[in-house]
Design a protein that fits this description.
- The chain is α/β, with parallel strands linked by helices.
- It has one domain: Metal-dependent hydrolases (TIM Barrel).
- 50% of the residues lie in helices and 13% in strands.
- The chain has an eight-stranded parallel β-sheet.
- Helix 8 links the parallel strand 3 and strand 4.
- Helix 1 packs antiparallel against helix 17, helix 5 runs parallel beside helix 7 and helix 16 runs antiparallel to helix 17.
- The chain is globular, with a radius of gyration of 19 Å.
- The relative contact order is 0.15.
- The structure holds hypoxanthine and zinc ion.
- Hypoxanthine (HPA) binds next to helix 4.
Length: 350
């Protein structure tokens, strides 16, 4: 690397702004917030065996080559979660970190099939997570809601059964998403399940264009009728799609550190988020699976801004505004966050 390419720390005032400005997090898998220390603590509490001798050995195994190599470890890590208390503890640990990053609103993914397929009751998963969401609001003022993600490597029948099983807890989640191995599992596979979710009045989102092609983003929009695209960074392979996303302000929940760890981009300097922002898309910054990818949401902002020195206060403010716009929160609440944001920008960078 030549000296001109060495990432420089962002100026201190910008770093403070990135950390302290209010922001929404819209792409966070709660199972991906399970830190190795908590995996070991829960394994001991539940007497679950782990194939790693220590926290350090587990962390050392976090060297991924692609999405699947990550998913294999992510599902193995989640195997220590058995009780309602475990789900509460995992989510509470996330909220403590989110509060430190001034996340004021979080829409959190959870993967029920990863747990129900091991015999964990749906109630333990959802009630434990929902309890942590309520307490995060009471203690930190974070408004938090849950989005039930369906695993796309499993069948349509399994997805239908999962959605039906979750219906007694319908009041605890606001939407349905689609995650796991993308290639070979196009959005169309879940057309009927998503139609059912929409009928139930649920919001709908889907991972698309992370490892899969731009065409998956189009079918997520056209067939699943999703309101946001999770990742979506491969949209740049189709200029017509980029234009459409900008025109319709379809939000993309982008996860910079994840994209580098899973080799979607070779490094942060090569990441296309600044170009997408310039093209007028409603892009947002999120952490995806922060325990596995090396940073929570503020760290994602900091690392991206460090790698792209042309990004400054105006872009920081726009990204926070986008996170509110892209959220499923009520309009009046979004207006309050925008005012809070402008007060912080004025104080720290005015
Ligand atoms: N992509 C797909 N599925 C996932 C991811 C991701 O980044 N994280 C957790 N499940
Ligand atoms: Zn994701």
């Amino acid at each position: 690397m030549s000296p001109t390419q060495t990432p420089q720390p962002a100026p201190p005032a910008l770093r403070a702004l990135l950390r302290r400005m209010p922001k929404a997090e819209l792409h966070l898998h709660i199972e991906g917030s399970l830190e190795p220390e908590l995996i070991f603590a829960l394994a001991a509490r539940n007497r679950v065996g782990l194939p790693y001798p220590s926290v350090q050995a587990l962390r050392a195994a976090y060297a991924f080559t692609d999405l699947q190599s990550f998913l294999d470890l992510y599902y193995a890590g989640a195997s220590v979660l058995l009780t309602e208390q475990d789900f509460f503890d995992m989510a509470w640990a996330y909220f403590e970190r989110a509060a430190a990053d001034n996340v004021v609103h979080a829409e959190i993914f959870f993967d029920p099939q990863t747990h129900t397929d091991r015999g964990v009751p749906m109630a333990s998963v959802i009630v434990g997570l929902a309890h942590a969401c309520r307490r995060a609001h009471a203690e930190f003022g974070i408004s938090a809601s849950l989005i039930l993600c369906l695993l796309r490597h499993l069948s349509e029948d399994a997805a239908f059964a999962t959605l039906e099983q979750a219906l007694p807890f319908r009041h605890h989640f606001i939407g349905v998403g689609l995650d796991s191995s993308e290639r070979g599992h196009p959005p169309e596979k879940f057309a009927r399940v998503f139609a059912r979710a929409r009928e139930l009045g649920l919001h709908v989102v889907a991972h698309a264009g992370e490892e899969g092609p731009a065409a998956y983003i189009e079918t997520a929009l056209d067939v699943l009728k999703v309101e946001r695209i999770d990742h979506g960074v491969r949209c740049t392979e189709s200029p017509a799609l980029v234009q459409r996303l900008a025109r319709d302000r379809v939000p993309l929940t982008v996860c910079p550190l994840s994209n580098v760890k899973l080799r979607v981009f070779p490094d942060l300097a090569a990441h296309n988020l600044p170009a997408l922002l310039d093209a007028g898309l409603c892009v947002t910054i999120n952490s995806d699976d922060p325990a596995y990818f090396g940073g929570y949401v503020a760290q994602n902002y900091l690392a991206l801004f460090e790698a792209h020195p042309q990004l400054g206060v105006a872009q920081a403010r726009q990204l926070a505004l986008n996170s509110f716009e892209a959220s499923f929160a009520p309009e009046a609440q979004k207006a309050r966050w925008r005012r809070e944001l402008d007060a912080v920008v004025e104080r720290l960078a005015g």
